[in-house]
Specification:
Chains A, B: GO terms for molecular function: methyltransferase activity. Chains A, B: This is Methyltransferase. Chains A, B: It is an enzyme of class 2 (transferase). Chains A, B: Keywords: Membrane, Methyltransferase, Transferase, Transmembrane, Transmembrane helix. 2 copies of one chain form a homodimer. By secondary structure, chain A is α/β, with parallel strands linked by helices. Chain A has 2 domains: 351 residues, Alpha-Beta Barrel (TIM Barrel); 65 residues, no CATH class. Chain A contains 20 helices and 21 strands. In chain A, strands 6-19-18-15-13-11-10-9 form an 8-stranded parallel β-sheet. In chain A, strands 2-3-1-12 form a 4-stranded mixed β-sheet. A 4-stranded mixed β-sheet of chain A has the order 8-7-21-20, with helices on one face. In chain A, α4 crosses α10, α12 runs parallel beside α13 and α13 packs across α19. The two termini of chain A are 24 Å apart.
């Protein structure tokens, strides 16, 4: 079994981890949970926020949401909602009462408690690219996702301190049968990384298996697992106006065990949502709140968050576009609404570009800055996403991490502090009109940490860059990606937990894994 | 004379302009002066703004600024400043009194009054790349600037509606002798474009020549020229703490004729300025205010603006870095100070990258978004800049214009409007849970203008992109640049003005142009 071989190799290497710390492929920022100090950008005025809120409430009370899950419908019927078949309508008072039960902030603690994340407030965490069916890199071009590539991305996810969460599968490993894919993937995720992981809500068995694996990997009893968030799921509505069976089923299973659920409608303006951005946001908010109401009813106070995935189609091709001006405003407006409801928020780092070039980076920059501007707490797809989510790219992963590190540095108070030391009046007087600041004590005391230090950007002049081979950014990123993989060492793991995890996977595979309908 | 040939060819083509309007290389946004609706990002609290202000005042009153221009010193002495040789100290009351004379907003009207710009308030205009000594494109690589390349950039500047100002020379045409370079360059600028132009403050003769050429090109009498801003200059201090002779001379000449002066210190933290960003900003503000005080004293109420060019060095190479987190915060802090003084503000679209790749675009995006966040009124180098300003690139110009258009679209209220029409409740009800929005009337009525339409971004999926040749962004930009040049038609120009301009250039060349010291 390739898993076991991989495991043994990693286990053997653990002792060498600290010794090799000096030979890192890059110098990167230490782990931290960034705090976003900026006041959010607010395209809507207070009345505008109320108008979008009221539109969402009218959608919920007058149109209703389809819940394609009989348990969910039964719960909501019991709660007093108006039920017609799968259509459920709920009024504003009930919605706001249920939303009021949800915590504004919560933590998620992975098997390494040093990598605990905080969801809510001014905290912001970055999640790797999740769910592309394909991979692209400079050597191999575009190809279907496979398990080896999945592992590569897990290593990048663990390596970068600016990636806080090992989210969904960075590529779908189609070379593993769907019945056992979650077992192999989570085994790798829980051994190659020690960060927060996610369960796809794709059927009861998968969800239960992942919860059990997270519990085992953390060396936790069942009650310890249930006591606080240890993992999470992200569910999407089927816009417009629908929640499907497995997503609701998974969400309810997690909520009942106190594990967080992020609800992220995919409302593409002009396709599954109104062509107008405020309308697409209102629909998205209504769909998200509908699921959150259900979860708060069955598990009062369970941790939830609202995700936004509102963008627009390309009116020429019908393809989704990302990182557009409309995307940015939709993200900002969603942020205003989510703060109105007092919930944590998820957004994304996204682009429509097919390769990691200029377009990829301006679209990604647009989306990441709109995440900052909307005070997003969890940024999905923050590293590695291409082609509207159909491709995961390691070069893009490396390039995105540079941007993420710059955002983390941008948040640091040192960049805008105005103490007497920062204002440097004495240094200005001492240097005078004919001097240079490089040699003065004020500079010498601070220069090593004064500025962001890049790892893939090349700040040398053209001639130095040319003499070194005229290497464009994507090629530099490729080299770094290869070097990181070559040097990678898996994080430490308790041997008992590791062995129990491997036994669990073996047993569940023998049992056939999860049922598949194909 | 190549000038004349160029002129005649263009003159002959004018009639065809409108007829060929349908065969444009790209579909672009119409001309507009964008209005930035966002509340600025404010890293400093009110006390922080006061602290930076007071530090700048202490620099001006306790350390003083070197004015390497005897006329300037004489004026300031007469005004009551404390003068010691070239060192001039001024107190806060005097500074604030002089700053109070400057208008918060002003216009600049070029020869085509439809291309008038507004400086101040929420208005934002974009200026082409200015002053690189070199050019780079995909075919020819890096090479020294020349006149043919200068003309290419003038055509791009005129072509794009999102470029509002034909600023400095996009490349320095070193194949023209410095004594007559300004004559040839301004002749091309004033015939190939009809947008606001700029005079370099590099000696009395050059400044006077450019003012005269702008007057002639506009068909204006001397009093009509003096009556309102028709052009502008941008001066840089010699940081730290100095203003040199020609810059002050040019600035005073323009101010006396009511033409705007932008004062832009180049305070590179860790080199010519303190390593701390607030200190670098305080120094920059002090240097900028010193020149503005002089101008307001000699020409009360003359239009001025504060520019920021505060960034940091790369502590590894000493090279300037751009679009860094520190650069963004410096720009935002400067915006807060400039608004405190009630003046218009200039910033830039900049990067350290050597080629128009991913790094170029994330650095440029960082700088452009910080311009938005600081409510900058005039964005220099908004299209075409590479290698910290040492290279102008046509591909980068094209790529940047996509980002600029997206910023313009981002500003449009349609992206965040929340009227009943925008909230689209009826459409959401009518489409219901099983429909699609593409066909409904609400979409059909709006889809043609609902979303930003790109011209160089490729939003097709990978397979369509691959079937079309797998063309990366930089190559697409290269093709568009070539196509724009091939189709370019100069703007209409009054024949009398054109002939007078040509005669003026010929006469001044015969007289030897401007003196040079080499």
């Amino acid at each position: 079994m390739t898993d076991d071989q991989g495991r043994k190799r990693r286990a053997g290497g653990r002792a060498g981890m600290k010794a090799r710390a000096g030979s890192a492929a890059i110098e990167q920022m230490p782990w931290r949970i960034p705090l976003n100090p900026d006041r959010p950008t607010e395209p809507l005025d207070a009345e505008g926020v109320q108008r979008v809120h009221k539109a969402a409430m009218r959608i919920l009370s007058e149109i209703g949401i389809e819940f394609l899950n009989p348990d969910a419908v039964a719960h909501l019927k019991k709660a007093g909602c108006i039920v017609n078949g799968t259509n459920v309508r709920m009024d504003e008072d009930f919605v706001m009462e249920m939303v009021g039960r949800a915590p504004e902030t919560f933590t998620i603690t992975p098997r390494n408690p040093d990598h605990e994340i905080i969801m809510g407030g001014k905290h912001m965490v970055f999640v790797n690219v999740s769910s592309p069916p394909n991979a692209w890199d400079m050597e191999r071009g575009k190809r279907s996702g496979d398990f080896e590539t999945f592992k590569e991305f897990m290593k990048l996810t663990q390596y970068f301190n600016c990636i806080h969460v090992a989210g969904g599968y960075p590529v779908e490993p189609v070379d593993i049968h769907a019945s056992v894919r979650h077992l192999d993937c989570l085994h790798e995720k829980l051994t190659l990384t020690d960060k927060v992981v996610h369960a796809y809500s794709l059927g009861a068995e998968r969800v239960e298996d992942v919860m059990e694996m997270v519990r085992i990997a953390g060396g936790l009893s069942h009650s310890e697992f249930d006591a606080r968030p240890r993992m999470y799921t992200n569910i999407n509505s089927v816009s417009p106006l629908k929640h499907d069976f497995p997503m609701l089923d998974g969400a309810m299973r997690l909520a009942k065990r106190g594990q967080p659920v992020v609800v992220t409608p995919f409302t593409l303006a002009g396709a599954m949502a109104p062509v107008t951005m405020a309308g697409a946001v209102a629909l998205s908010i209504a769909e998200a709140l509908a699921a959150i109401v259900l979860l708060q009813y069955i598990a009062p106070g369970c941790p939830v968050a609202i995700g936004t995935f509102t963008s627009n189609v390309d009116m020429k091709s019908g393809a989704p576009a990302f990182g557009t001006p409309e995307y940015m405003r939709a993200t900002q407006m969603t942020g205003q609404l989510v703060r109105f409801y007092g919930l944590p928020m998820r957004a994304s780092g996204v682009c429509a570009a097919n390769v990691p070039d200029g377009q990829a980076m301006w679209e990604t920059s647009n989306s990441l800055w709109s995440a900052v501007q909307s005070r997003t707490n969890m940024v999905y797809h923050a590293a590695g996403w291409l082609e509207g989510g159909l491709i995961a790219s390691p070069e893009k992963f490396i390039m995105d991490c540079e941007v993420l590190q710059m955002i983390q540095r941008y948040f640091e108070e040192a960049t805008f502090a105005s103490t007497d030391d920062d204002l440097a009046f004495d240094a200005i007087r001492d240097v005078g009109p004919n001097g240079h600041y490089f040699g003065v004590q004020h500079t010498q005391d601070r220069y090593q940490t004064a500025f962001y230090a890049p790892f893939v950007s090349d700040w040398r002049n053209y001639e130095a860059w040319q003499a070194d081979g005229s290497v464009w950014t994507v090629e530099r990123a490729h080299r770094i990606y290869k070097q990181i993989l070559a040097e990678f060492e898996a994080p430490a793991m308790d041997d008992v937990a590791r062995e129990e995890l491997t036994r669990f996977v073996a047993r569940r595979k023998q049992e056939g894994g999860a049922p598949t309908d194909f």
